[in-house]
Amino acid sequence: MSLDAKIPQGPLAEKWSKHKFNLKLVNPSNKRKYDVIVVGTGLAGASAAASLAALGYNVKAFCFQDSPRRAHSIAAQGGINGAKNYQNDGDSVYRLFYDTIKGGDYRAREGNVYRLAEVSVNIIDQCVAQGVPFAREYGGLLDNRSFGGSQVSRTFYARGQTGQQLLLGAYSALNRQIHLGKVKMYTRTEMLDVVTIDGHAKGIVTRNLKTGAIETHAAHAVLLATGGYGNVFYLSTNAIGSNVTAAWRAHKRGAYFANPCYTQIHPTCIPVTGDHQSKLTLMSESLRNDGRVWAPKTVEVAEKLRSKEITASQVKEEDRDYFLERKYPSFGNLVPRDVASRNAKEMTDDGKGVGATGLAVYLDFAESIQRLGEDTVRAKYGNLFDMYLQITDENPYKQPMRIYPAVHYTMGGLWVDYNLSTNVPGLYALGECNFSDHGANRLGASALMQGLSDGYFVIPYTLGDYLATIGPKPVDINHPAFEKTKQEVIAYNNKLLALKGNKTVVEYHRELGHIIWEYCGMARSEEGLTKAKAMIKALKADFWVNAIVTGENDEVNAALERAGRVADFIELGELMITDALARRESCGGHFRVESQTEEGEALRDDENFAFVSAWEFKGENQEEELHKEELVFENVKLTQRSYK
Amino acid sequence: MNLTLKVWRQKNTQTAGKFVTYKAEGISPDMSFLEMLDVVNESLTRKNDEPIYFDHDCREGICGSCSLYINGHPHGPKKAITTCQLHMRTFSDGETITIEPWRSAAFPVMKDLATDRSAFDRIQQAGGFISINTGGVPDANLIPIPKVIADEAFNSATCIGCGACVAACKNASAMLFTSAKITQLGLLPQGQPERYSRVQAMVAQMDEEGFGNCTNTGACEAECPKEITLNNIAFMNNDYFSAKLFREEQAHDHTGGE
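Above: the input entities. Below: the structure tokens describing the complete assembly.
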């Protein structure tokens, strides 16, 4: 199958407007004849469900949590970009587009990224109108802060809880449509499969997490807004329940999975303390506005810090290496995430790490506290400092934070065209669940922007075109495809429930995470990846013999839920490795040690790898087939990224 | 650390529950409370016993899923944090810890330590929104909002919907939760057009769900992990009575705009 991204022709700035005009419309009185399924209620899902229902479609929305408000978008801290240029500092739609394409190391589509920048301004307006309490200046206008990979202030924020406020805004819009009867909400319901008829997605199979009932739902289109797959690493900043199951099961029904090896390791997280740890906690990138990253200049000083012979504040100024400021004078501490993470790793690899494990560097606020006062720093970052204190029992107002990179976001995801449609007609992917806008590295404050862009301002236009094409004839829930898929889901769950071995599912998950982090984390090599692939194959085989899954289907059963998710993560993990092996270049978050500049920066190979990798599932235990979508750059010149 | 846990186990809503005692051994003080329960669950799983069910997700204090009543306090003994942010260093070696679900008729126990909090969603669905569609809204900077008002609205908006206020209240009142949304939207200019219909619709739904009334004890404020204040309840009462006494006829039905 050829991969047509359906990027509209014409000048960059006119693509989206022209495309919107060319898309077919559904007559207002016909919209109520269409049913749409939305899976996931984070920023992308809730905004899509609310917007489509407002247009008149009948929406069924699903989430596995007990309330749509608990989707993991809620935990996003720092902010959301919008090219408003309220600060008069030279921002524009074009600059946001350019920063995003460059930040993604030239592995995203120009057309998509420009559209994202274009609608970013509408998102801010929409959220304010919903009553989202963004931070404001004393004059009553909106405040902005800076984020990595950019030299303008375009990030809107609500203290360190921007994701929470944006999600509650989208949740309120969703609630209004539930109130109006246009959205039917299914909570504690997990999607386990897609139903296709004649190659078109026509519904889903779900498990009711309270009763265990396996149910089918029919619709004219299915939208997946189910988030990313960062939990393949076991330890990540994702919520415990965040999983790849909906996307992965769709992949196994024919949807291509794009760029799975593009994962984002966030530089500023609270370091790992031990094996008992169940998740990692992010310290927002916004902290790099006022915090300075440093490590001791020498191994000797680092050793004294590790053994607690001295404290961080006792290290003299001349013994500190503010390595980001030293190496990247123009961007300083605000270099993009992939660059900051690799540099932190370099420091700890050289023996200059601090903390008991030696796997940390400092993020120091002493200078800012001196310059701005403790109260100002508290007003900006109070909740983050409190979180740090709770977890580490150390006071960041008095001593620098210890930070280390951790998995935070996945740029890869289901392949979609410009209309957010996967290659399976009628099946769409939105937000982090798709792959399309961030290339090989996402800039800070862009995830919230993309989720809401897809949900509020893209899918309401593009979905209509497909629906108008297929017509409003109701989907027959009695079509044998529904029962067949349902029986397959039941059989799969029974296979999981029959596992009564000697090793818990969590142990398998932890083991998988170790493999992926070690060999497909911040540095990847041919040798390591090859080894990891064999290890994952062995892990999968072992899982299906020795795992323990307690309980029955017809009850609340967290063990069964987790087992299904981990089984999917293992399969996805193998595909990540396959993708990382195939991409013999470094770009953004994908760092192949064989491909680096003399200064140790990621070295792209544009001649051979300026394409999107889209993988096709070929059957259980078969190698997947690679399809390539060539990336065409007509507006930006591909250069070695420099933040010096 | 070695601890004794008295944990509420209940098969489902229909079945009666009871306390079961477990040993939690070899616990590190750096573990979070939920990680301690993970350890217990892992050992139960290895014995092919049913693990203890509890709601949890983000584990960083923001999603509002976790909801344990620990030693007589929602979210445990520490102030202004959720259960997932509580660390074992708060407890001492050899201690006995009692863990229960939220107790309220409007939050039926679903299984073990997890309750059904969908009543909270229904209160929000009754009126916790501004009736606008996507698109067609004015520029974000068109209406200046005084910083103090925006900050005050933000403070109310930080509610995570965990239900600790209900669990802490002797009347199982949901007034702190309900008033937080009413105050957030009532303070902002965008929330004015529906201010009085909103408060009536949300209060009516809150009553219908079977939550109790407020008798000004203040346990909700004391136990709220996000430090939502009683001022919110005062704001709600003011708007509610104002609507009932003077604006009942002016306040249109809260239909959500259609």
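Note for the figure: Residues 558-582 of chain A form the longest helix (25 residues).
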